[in-house]
Amino acid sequence: MEELILSYSQIKTWKSCRQKWYYKYVEGLKPIQHIHKIEVGKYGHYLLESYYKGKDISKASEEYWLDKTENMFQEEIDEYVEVRRQAEDMVKRYLEHYDESEWKILAVEEPFKVNIPNPDGTESKDYLIGVIDLVVEDETGEIWLVDHKFTSIDLLKYEDNLVLDEQANYYLWALRQMLQVDGIAGIIFNLLRTKTPSVPKVLVKGGLSKAKNIDTTYEVYMQAIKDNGLDPADYQDILEHIKMTEKPFFKRHRVYRNTNEIDQIGLELHQVAKDIRTGIIYPNAGGYFANDPYRELLILDRKGGDVDFYKQQNFTKK
């Protein structure tokens, strides 16, 4: 029996559509990327990785920027200048928001390959691979897996579904396998909102707008008062309103996991691996997003079209 190497992406694809999984992981088809975007979340993730590795953030940003824009035309580069500014500002505000002395850093961007054992504890030929964002020990001595999450939506709404986050659960199980200890507390979802807090508008008649629907923070509004040479006493009403209603731009959501829960995750992984080894391949129409090249390939395949030509034009081989 050959080794089965599973990533979370592979498992996710298998669960969404087995035919798509076959295209990607058996035939090795990878869509040709005509557009290379620079995204705030990925940019911010790299800056956080650099920070926790002890690197200078400014230098890390310059390295990332030069790497991502190397093959771009100047017009494309100009489009992403604001993305860079947004990512740098987000991480700067993040570092000002938290007292990082409460964390002892144990691992940063740690790659792993761990065996998925059989239910009786014996070693199998199945493995889970991935990269863990961060492992820390907090001020109480508890060990946590930290998973960075970047989103533009309200963090209070976003965190509602984190308790069921599959990837984080699988990585937590892998961390326990790597450390061979049961004293791992759980997962800290390190949430960062990619939206920049709004700066209040300067009114034509003078002063700042007191619109109550402004999506900002107390600190940003107060800085706008100082920057415009205004008296904070004149803005106590809106400052108090912001204090009471502002949506968080950073949040750390803790999900505890006991030994039994982590054991169950391992059993699930074993079953998924078994299913992939023996399961029948069939399509699931709901497992595709809009303009998904794999979806178009499936449709063409089902209609008896020129599949080989479509593959040559739209895919490369991994």
Any key phrases for this structure?
single chain; 318 residues; alpha/beta; 6-stranded mixed β-sheet; two-stranded antiparallel ribbon; 13 helices; 45% helix; 19% strand; globular
Principal-axes shape call = globular
H and E order:
EHHEHHHHEEEHHEHHEHHHE
In whole angstroms, how far apart are the ends? Answer: 23 Å
Mean pLDDT: 94
DSSP helix fraction: 40-55%
Count every helix, treating DSSP H or I runs of 4 or more residues as helices: 13
Total E-strand runs? 8
Report on the architecture of this protein.
The structure is a single chain. With 318 residues, this protein is of the alpha/beta class. Helices cover 45% and strands 19% of the residues. Strands 1, 3, 4, 5, 6 and 7 form a six-stranded mixed β-sheet that branches. Helix 1 (8-16) runs antiparallel to helix 2 (18-26) and helix 12 runs antiparallel to helix 13 (307-314). The protein starts with a strand and ends with a strand. The model has no long low-confidence stretch (mean pLDDT 94).
Short description:
By secondary structure, this protein is α/β, with parallel strands linked by helices. The protein is built from 13 helices and eight strands.
